[in-house]
Amino acid sequence: MARALKPDLQKSKEEVEHLVEFMTSNEHDKEKEINQIFGGVQGIASLLQTSTKKGIIAVRESLSERERIFGYNRLGGTNAGLKSIAHYFLYAITDIVLILVIIGAIILVILGYYYPETCQGKAVANSEKLAWMEGVGILATVFVIILLSAFSDFFRDLFRYNLQNQVENERKATVIRGGVREEICYRDIKVGDLCEIKAGSIIPADGILVEITEVITDESCINRGKRVIKSKKDPFVFTSTHVIVGHGKMIVLAVGGKTQAGILAQKRTNETRQEDIQRTSQTLQGKLTRASAILGLLGIIIGLIVALVLIISFSVKVYNVDDLDYDPRHWNDFLKAIIIGFVIIIVAEPEGLPMAVTITISRSLGYMQKKNIFIRNDEILETMGNVTTMCCNKTGVLTTVSSLPMKEEVKESYINGQHLRGDASDYKIKIPEKIIDELANGIAINTSYTSNIQFSDTDGTIIAVGDITECALLEFADDLDASYRHIRRVYSEDTFFKVFPFDPDLKFMTTVVRQDKENFKIYSKGAPEVMLDKCTHIMTAEGEQPLDTERSQRVQDVVEVMETKSQLKVICLASRTREETSTDDTEWSSEEVNSKFTLVAVIGIESTVGQKSAGNRMVVSEGRLISKNTFGGYNLARQLREYKKSVEDVLIEDFIRGVAVNTDYLSNIQNEGPDHLPQQVGDPQDCALLQFVLELGKTYQHYRDEHPYEKHVLYKSFANDPPNQQYNATVIRLSDPETYRVYVRGGIGFVLNKSKRILHNHPDGAIDLDDTQKYNIRSAVEKMEKRDVFPVAFAVKDIEIKANSGTPDWSNKDVILSDLMFVGYLGLKETIRGEVANAIEECQKAGLQVTMVTGSSLQSAGAFAKKCGILQPTKNWPVKENSVFGMDIQAFDKETLGNSGKIDQGKFDKIWPDNLRVLANCPPGKKQSIVEGVKVSRLKENGEVVAVVASGIHDGPFIREGDVGLSMGVSGSNVAQEAADIILKTDNFSGVLETIKWGRHIYETVLKFLQFQFTATWVTLIVLLVGAIVFQKSLFSAAQLLWLNLIMDALASIALTGDSPSRSILRHKPYGRDKPLMSRSILRNIIGHCIYQIAVIFIIIFLFAGFTDTKDGYTDKNICEPSQHATMVFTTLIFMQLFNKINCRRVEDRNVFCDKDGRFDWVFLLVILFCFGIQIIIVFFFHNAFRVRPMDAQQWLWCLFFGFSELFWGQIVFTIPKNVIPRKMRCCSRGVPPKRSGCCFFFRGIRSREEVDAPAEFYGIGSHNPRQPRNPVGPERT
Q1: Which member of 194, 790, 808, 1165 lies 3.0 to 4.6 Å from 55 by CB, making a disulfide possible if both were Cys?
Q2: Start and end of every P-type ATPase A domain (predicted)?
């Protein structure tokens, strides 16, 4: 039998609590206190019975014990579960009005059992032992109402509970337990866990760093700094903060409510509630609360009036007119009047509204989950449906990171006064050994030790682990035959004296190590514009030389060539030696250390695989190859089949070989993707050519296998050369015939100028390329360019291999790339991939303004926005060739900022929205400025609702600034995903459309329910009020009203929420921030149906009895008795509500039976049939409980006729223009006021109940609790 393995941590609890308090102290040097009080990091590890290398041992009993002593990693501090259904049932009974109705019904049962029913104070014949049945009917109906309310609350919170579990399951942290690295949910982290953190990570709990490598955190969410540099003197990190740069390991000290974020959350409770009220005033929930308050107030007023009228009229009639004495049986009448008043209050309150919202949101989020769209806030989806403006990042949103990892490599360097190009292993002999050693030491030591070069076990290819730029430097050191691994073994991270971590603003990184007992060695690297100013010397073969004007100018020229012509990322490496002046690293200031360097090398790095566009792709659309004939235009596939028949196979194969070897081997065509198109990976031009090979019915991979990339001789133009002068050339060796073959592709200008002959349809068919042919080719290409088609020309050349002649001089590029044979040209057309272009087009058709916010240049951003459809002509913008519709951040600031440095809304509105589709050159810290301006813009009558779609590590504030935040699940950083309300888990941008569609569906479903609810409520209240005044008697019994309430609330919420949204809903315009909930079209429908139903009810009451030979049930003699006439009125009212429910299935469409996609909601039909069935059963069987009498066939048909006539009347009402309703009658454009005050809320407070508190107990750290503002514990908005 296994023995329990529980750590003895009870004694450590107090010391750990003291340590947690010490974390937030203002002590400057916390390292000294940690060493003195707790015995250093190792002492803390011993205290928590963990290890700084291997973490805790993951044994179930041990983990449970840690959770019992130190708590659970949730803000509530406990692992609370969902309450039982009994809890919700008891909670539903806390409604004071229902309690009074229940008490009154019980008393009515007792009185009715002992006393006969009375009418106007006189006993009703044959009513002995029957009066109690009405009380039973009331109790039964109330029980059903309570049951449905309990189930509604239960399933609502069950849904939120499951949603929260999904949120928590999405949050992963990397921990080391027992020396094994594993990913676990945040909630499963225990005190003592060893967690790994890196740039972009969200800190999962409070802890202390045991390994620190350039860690900078953003702690603004807990009211600390935005950029806090972590060191041994400040090693503490806090939950909900995030790592900006660097990496490290931490031991968890506090979890859940005991963290600083948890404590702060408790202090913010009142502030959060007030912010929630402010936010709610502009959301659907706030507007619904106001509408509910209006109905509640109306119900209370009319309920009181009706009850008082009934009581007063009864008293006057019995005690004054009839002069009867008091009789205890009279309490039956008094009690019924009081119950009627309370029931009217119940009927007026739209209790089914929360149930309708819950059902609709649950269905919507279930669909979202199937579509891999993760919703973190159950209320935010409806807000997404009201979005009027969407601000998107370009990188990571409209473009995605390539499916292959990005790889960087050193292409050029400046060392020892030499500008070197190519592979470092080829020119390493030109570099002195001393410089190689200094360079290798600087690279190995002054890079993150988590960056490494590994080799694949399968094919031996190089795998970059960690930062790709640092990996490029490490690979460069290996190519120089300097082992960086050996250097790192000599200088472990523990031996570092001081590290100045890389700062994106300062653009450099410095590491200080001890060289010997007397000296320190300082290595630094950074951007040339920063580092060159810090260098006073340069390292050469002769030693360190002063960096005088001449040498400095030479270095500047090299940097300019690397940056402008070669388009490389440039990094300067420098070092210096400093004598020991102090062993206290706090006395080593950054300004003092980072100066007087010796420049060792200038390195130019190229990204060999960058980003592939998810928003565009290139394909071959036309061309001319190895023939005088051209192809292109309509039915390209058929033309290519004909073309293949007219050209020799050997020539086609040679062209395919040229495409295969003269494109980047990392560019490939992969399997069909979700858009049903072959996936292009790598350079778009390369992929277009490779796909053209496949369209010819050929393949290219076998040529790449035959001619490895490493054996190629490569030539390439500078990146800033004119497009028609750019080129790529590859030389390979062929065995049959024995020759070198040069394949060239590039701009038409370069290729034509270098070509002397042109190849026609025969291997030996080359002829001279004269000026006339060149003119014709240029003319054809110019026409292609006017059609926005990008031309690529091709040429070849054979270099004969002669015996004993040696290898050609490959450095003589001009000779190699001369006397070419022109093969032909292809036109590449940049097309838009459906998922982005179609989604943007659909968003625009749905009424959304799409704006791109990017750090790219204005030219690049404008060109991309034009291709993916963001830039579209408007009435204020004439189409001009190559026009860019936007501005960069400098122009934006100039146009919009006022004297205070903040946005001047008047200036902003002048450029919004027609002149601001693209905001370029925008740093992360300024992206939210455009969102701030849009949100308060009043150019649109109903205001703006802004969605932000971003995925970068610095985009948290940008995402939080929007009314709705969205991020990507694959390319999105942890920070972006934590800030977002909606995560598109597959990075499919078209998922935005799904959220808009279902968000609008939620809104319109609520409108359908409100239209039905308001109509039924107003009709019922007006009929009861008029009936009480005219007849001094309620026209409907309490049980009848409660049955009507079930139809209006619970059953209506089930019936009207079963529809699925059709595509046509995207053609409805967004409602905006201040759109009145009760619009003119809704009011037209409500008023129109109210007039008709009230007219029908009173026609039946006053005129229809004689017309149908029915005994009048509303005379003074028989008004107290159940009658067919009264039953007919009751049944007609029920039938009209049921048929009007059909009218309410569509708010803005005549066809109320099927949607435009031809679907019908069978749940709706079943609910309607159920209600009809119950009504028939009530009339036939429950006479006394519901005070009805059986009707004959004619009476049933008349009831059915009047109910069915509602459908015809609905078409008439729909025909009436909504303009007949004055605009001033619209209501609920704003939600609840900031302070829940006023008579509306005072009267409604009689029935109000606090929200069920079950969900509040299990919303975790940084979560999106739907009852709180988004990100209650998270980086604050700026």
Answers
A1: 194
A2: 170-265
